[in-house]
Amino acid sequence: MSVHHCAYVFDCLLYELGPVHPTIKDLVDVSPPHPQFDDHLTESPLFVTFKKRASSKRHHRHRRDDSEEWELRGCIGTFSPLPLGEGLRQYTVQSAFRDRRFYPIEVARGRGPRRERVHSH
């Protein structure tokens, strides 16, 4: 998965969450995001996985290395090949809001979504 795929997943997530602040609505393009990667029509099985930073007290807030522990936050996908653009958008919504094992992702008042990782398999 490329940086462009991850950016598209978060653009889809932010689009679904809507504007964070009511006055921002007028300034933000409210049209759905479009894939900005060349392989958006390539068909592939895919899974969108969200992970959140583990809430253990033993983790330091200022740690910048990749040794942090992450816990599953949502994971839904398909083994049936789909165009990447369409599939990433569809399964971003499924993983973020419809994975029955977890509460839907929400925006904390005045902030964007909490730090989460996105993986595609």
Distance between the termini: 8 Å
**Strand line-up of the largest beta sheet:** 2-1-3
Helical/strand content category: alpha+beta
Q: What order do the helices and strands follow?
A: HEEHE
Biggest beta sheet attributes: 3 strands, antiparallel
Overall mean pLDDT score?
78
Pick out the low-confidence regions: none
Give the DSSP E fraction (strand runs of 2 or more residues): 15-25%
**Which of globular, elongated, flat, extended, rod-shaped describes the shape?**
globular
DSSP summary, beta strand count: 3
Kindly state the percentage of residues in helix: 10-25%
Helix count equals 2
What is the CA-based Rg, rounded?
Answer: 15 Å
Could you describe the 3D structure shown?
With 121 residues, this protein is α+β, with helices and mostly antiparallel strands. The chain contains two helices and three strands, in the order αββαβ. The protein has a three-stranded antiparallel sheet, with helices on one face. The N and C termini lie close together (8 Å).
